[in-house]
């Protein structure tokens, strides 16, 4: 008779004691950042040599428009001709019916 017995399984199935370690590392708040541009853009140290030559102030001058832009002298000629009010008219009939000027020549012959 099997005296050794089958020893009640004392080992069990070992409850997962390890857990799954909650992500303790995290993602470390980005401390590096984008490194604020410490180098800067080197402020023009050499300087651009203050223009000692000067830019020769326009000595000739830009001849202020002496001719001028001739203010429209011709203008748009206000309709001077107009529509010529009928000046000829129809000449009051002066010719008339020619009153008998010749007359009947008084009988000088006798």
From TrEMBL:
Ranges of Polar residues composition bias in the record: 55-85
Protein name: Uncharacterized protein
Originating species: Lysinibacillus xylanilyticus
Skewed-composition ranges (Basic and acidic residues): 1-40, 86-96
Lineage per the UniProt record: Bacteria, Bacillati, Bacillota, Bacilli, Bacillales
Region of interest (Disordered), ranges: 1-110
């Amino acid at each position: 008779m099997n005296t050794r017995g089958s020893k009640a399984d004392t080992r069990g199935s070992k409850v997962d004691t390890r857990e799954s370690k909650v992500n303790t590392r995290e993602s470390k708040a980005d401390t590096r950042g984008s490194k604020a541009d410490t180098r800067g853009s080197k402020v023009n140290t050499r300087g651009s040599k203050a223009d000692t030559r000067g830019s020769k102030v326009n000595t000739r001058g830009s001849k202020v428009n002496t001719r001028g832009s001739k203010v429209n002298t011709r203008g748009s000629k206000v309709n001077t001709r107009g529509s010529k009010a009928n000046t000829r008219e129809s000449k009051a009939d002066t010719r008339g019916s020619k009153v008998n000027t010749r007359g009947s020549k008084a009988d000088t012959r006798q």
